[in-house]
Design a protein that fits this description.
- The protein is α+β, with helices and mostly antiparallel strands.
- The chain folds into three domains: 48 residues, RNA-binding S4 domain (Structural Genomics Hypothetical 15.5 Kd Protein In mrcA-pckA Intergenic Region, Chain A, Roll); 96 residues, Pseudouridine synthase; 128 residues, Pseudouridine synthase, CATH 3.30.2350.10.
- The strands form four sheets. Strands 5, 6, 8, 9, 10, 11, 14, 15, 16 and 17 form a ten-stranded mixed sheet that branches. The chain has a three-stranded antiparallel sheet with strand order 2-1-3, with no helix packed on it. The chain has a two-stranded parallel ribbon with strand order 4-7.
- Helix 6 runs antiparallel to helix 7.
- The chain is elongated, with a radius of gyration of 23 Å.
């Protein structure tokens, strides 16, 4: 057996990537000899010593940014992220992110992910998508949650306000997602073999005449901008989407003045991660969390309902 696989089986609290890094950094020895090759073949009677250094301080600075914590324990957190908050630092957004806020909030309760005292971001939400996101506090939780995302045993449900009324009222959108052929900043449904396979299930929850509707979306895969791209592909883009919903649908003319004003002031896509469910990495208990629509989406739904009243 390869050494990295052998150690991953023997040390389930460490991820395969963490073990590979420990090997490459000279923290694994056998009979006093450093072994740095992950593909080193393990033979009977061998004994290995693994030295796991204390977690390094995270590079992102801790920042006291208010958070809505839905659940927290020694292994993970579930956060209800507001629209406008970027998840992870990156080009153009070096700080002021969810990661900065979590480092400040968690403090010493972070035991380290990948050898660094940082939260483990298992999945992401777009900056202007609100809702629930689960975050690991340690390697074991990160490994378990990542595996659940990979085998699609995580429950995730989104609510979206879209233009028009999808027909049939429920269905499955399937189409590879890759870079837009003309705009590299956007994603699009592309023909195989380009892109990566993607599938989204949708269900109509409420219709507001022919102008708009509220739909539920469930992800079978987790591609970049998947829901936004798939709904645009079936000609029902998300209301307020600045990237995929720029063309003003003719249905917008059917809105009342109040509804048009609210939607015009919407500075985000009307997409909300409303539910997440998973198996707790330590206890095995099945957990499920719900989040109400944010106020801005509630107000739009209320006005659209009022406009439909006789």
């Amino acid at each position: 057996m390869r050494l990295d696989r052998f150690l991953a089986d023997a040390l389930p609290d460490l991820s395969r990537s963490r073990i590979k890094a420990l090997l490459q950094d000279g923290h694994v020895t056998e009979s006093g000899q450093t072994i740095s090759d992950p593909s080193y073949r393990v033979k009977p009677q061998m004994t290995f010593q693994v030295s796991v250094p204390a977690p390094e301080e995270a590079a992102p600075a801790p920042q006291a940014i208010p958070l809505t914590i839905v659940h927290e324990d020694a292994d993970l957190l579930v956060v209800d992220k507001p629209a406008g908050l970027v998840v992870h630092p990156g080009p153009g957004q070096p700080d002021g992110t969810l990661v900065n806020a979590l480092i400040a909030h968690c403090g010493d309760s972070l035991s380290g992910v990948g050898g660094v005292k940082r939260p483990g971001i298992v999945h992401r939400l777009d900056k202007d998508t609100s809702g629930l996101i689960v975050v690991a506090k340690n390697d074991a939780a990160h490994k378990s949650l990542s595996a659940q995302f990979a085998d699609r045993s995580i429950d995730r449900s989104y609510r979206a306000l879209v233009w028009g009324v999808p027909m049939p009222p429920s269905g499955r959108i399937e189409g590879n997602i890759g870079r837009h052929p003309k705009d590299r900043k956007k994603m699009a449904v592309v023909a195989p073999p380009r892109g990566k396979s993607a599938a989204t299930r949708y269900r109509l929850l409420q219709r507001f005449g022919d102008a708009a509707s509220l739909v539920e979306c469930k992800l079978e895969t987790g591609r970049t901008h998947q829901i936004r791209v798939h709904l645009t592909h079936i000609r029902h883009p998300i209301i307020g989407d600045p990237v995929y919903g720029r063309r003003t649908p003719a249905r917008k003319n059917a809105l009342s003045e109040d509804a048009a004003r609210l939607i015009g002031a919407l500075n985000r896509q009307a997409l909300h991660a409303a539910l997440i469910g998973f198996e707790h990495p330590r206890t095995g208990e099945r957990l499920k969390f719900d989040s109400e629509l944010p106020n801005v989406m509630k107000r739009i739904v209320s006005v659209l309902n009022r406009d439909r009243a006789p």
